[in-house]
Amino acid sequence: MYAVPYLWKMTRLWCAAYINHEKRPVFDVRGLSPVKNDLSSPYDVHHLDRPSGKLQPEVRYDTLTLDVDPMRIFYSYSHQDEALRAALDTHLALLRRDGLIEPWHDRQISAGKEWAGEIDEHLKAADIILLLISSDFIASDYCFDIEMDLALDRHDRGEARVVPIILRPCDWQTARFAKLQALPKDAKPVVEWPNQDRAFLDVAHELRRLVTEGKPASESAETDLGQPSYPDPQTQSLSEAL
Q1: Bridge partners for 72 per DSSP
Q2: Which of residues 166 and 106 earns the better pLDDT score?
Q3: What is 37-68 written as a DSSP string?
Q4: Side-chain-facing half-sphere of 23: CA atoms under 13 Å
Q5: Alpha-carbon Rg of the chain, whole angstroms?
């Protein structure tokens, strides 16, 4: 019943395309060159102006892209807690795969590099500094007096965010970092959780919230997707004229 009118309409459109001698190419707004249409026809019938039968240029909308750099994370920890640090790093794998974080720790220092200089460089460049708290961390002069002090100085200046993570029970409540909200939930030491995976999962969730809320969107995210964008005024004028 509906097939005959539909075929008749499509036939008229095809005829209009073939008899129209004004070859108007389909423009890709991301480049200056016309886009080649289907080889079966020099015109793209899907972009015909139905009332007039004239071809219209195709205006393509760019997709929303978030071109943001991952947040650099620095692990400040005692080597006595290396197994717990590695377990935490494993739980942050999806954040890394999602391109949200770029973790670093001293085991990544390559042979022949000056370890103190490498640590200082990455500590000063970090966006988030994780203090992995334990009695061994507090007893370490390097961790407590150098890394922690530098991290908290940067935190106080607003240059980085310091997050204490309580790994093992210890006397930390009067330390300089005690003013900061600690993880996991209620600052309960990781090793005291019935399931340590649950503790690290809580840490991972809070860090995901931190990096997604704290990272500013790129300028490309502010593009109005409701309006087409053109590479130059010439293409815009051509589109508006057609």
Answers
A1: 102
A2: 166
A3: --TT-SS-GGGEETTTTEE----PPPPP----
A4: 6
A5: 30
Cβ 220 vs Cβ 19: under 8 Å? no
DSSP-assigned beta bridge partners for residue 129 = 74, 162
Euclidean distance between CA atoms 180 and 220, whole angstroms? 34
Pairing of strands 34-35, 26-27: antiparallel
Whole-number pLDDT of residue 130:
96
| Amino acid identity at 169 | P
Backbone angles phi, psi at 131, to 5 degrees: -95, 110
How far, CA to CA in Å, does 169 sit from each of 134, 182, 191, 199, 223? Answer: 7, 13, 8, 14, 49
- To the question of pTM greater than 0.70 for the whole model, the response is no
pLDDT given at position 64? 37
Q: So what's the pLDDT on residue 121?
A: 84
For 100-130, the pLDDT digits (tens) are 999 987 776 667 667 677 778 888 999 999 9
Pull the structure tokens for residue 1: 């019943």
* Residue 132 buriedness (CB in 10 A; 0-12 / 13-18 / 19+): buried
* Residue 45 scores a pLDDT above 80: no
Interatomic CA distance for residues 70 and 78, integer angstroms: 25
First to last CA, the chain: 35
What is the rounded CA–CA span in Å between residue 70 and residue 99? 6
Enter the tokens of residue 136. 């061994």
Q: Token pair of 97, please?
A: 């795969």
Mean pLDDT of 229-233: 55
pLDDT of 155 strictly over 90? yes
